[in-house]
Amino acid sequence: MSELLRSLKGDCDTLGCWIGDLPRGCELCMEGAKSVIFVTGVCPERCWYCPLSRSRKGRDVTYVNEVLARDIKDVVTEVAANLSRGAGITGGDPIARLDRAIEIIRALKDAFGQDFHIHLYTTGYLLTEEGMRELVRAGLDEIRIHITGEHSYRALAIAAKSGIDVGVENPAIPGTEKELLNAIRKATEIGAGFVNLNELEFSEGNEASLILRGYRTENGVAAVGSRETALRVMAAVMEEGIDISVHYCPARYKDAVQYRRRLARRAVATRMPYEEIEGSLVKWAEIDADEEISKRLVVGGLAFICGGRVVTSDTLAKRLGLRHTLVKAYPLSPRKIIETREEQS
Ligand code: SF4
After folding, report:
1. Is-above-0.90 flag for pTM?
2. Does ligand 1 lie within 6 Å of residue 111's CB atom?
């Protein structure tokens, strides 16, 4: 197996590795250029490994990345704020709220143009031929079927006739090599062009269920054995010469790389005049100066009054030799402060 695996593209320990071509949706995700649109927490399935948190599971709420969206304008605004060039439509099952998913796809294509890439995840339980036609008409570029039963293959067959990119996306549950390989054979026959195998993740929503079934984690994120299962399946696909692209997506680097890249883009788009960008964070200085100096800076447009505090850039505060508190935050709305430090200039 090791020789076969040496021919993989990418890096299995960082961003992921693959055989064949990487799906377009994954390329953009790796760059941090995709927003995740959680259409609804409603889902007709009951997967024991479902990662959804209690605040989302079964609840008919819409989020864009980590922001609650009250309406379609919120969706478009948040996608713009992340400088995204594409979006993944997920849930729950977006098909459980098909009209909303279609409205979102249409609005994103209208706002950002036809090149804005949109993919959608579903198990296909509720997917009909008419629903698929409507999704494609709205502008959907790619659909990923999470195989949970025979209904998923029926959905795959519907999707394969639609003319858009069609793939399969499932978690690599440790020890399920045989099942995954059978699913890949079947999906290839039906017409799927790619398979994504996600490293099985521990989350607040599935932790108890995973532990109950004997799975464990060493790093607090990924299930032990999931990576090996995915790589064994990829080796078998190569050995058999199955004509399909397969991509392994590691859980542990999602936060370290993809999430931080998306935040770095959000920092660029939403930076306030007094903020500076440091990687995926923004930072600023809260000045501790007398009233006279503060007033001069504000009047001169070099500092701003924000939330009752006088703020400026960390660089300017240092150059002026002002005592200040350095604040570092994730560039979310509102800013999520992660560090404050007294700076004695
Ligand atoms: S299909 Fe997805 S959202 Fe629905 S129960 Fe399964 S893992 Fe959870």
Report:
1. yes
2. no
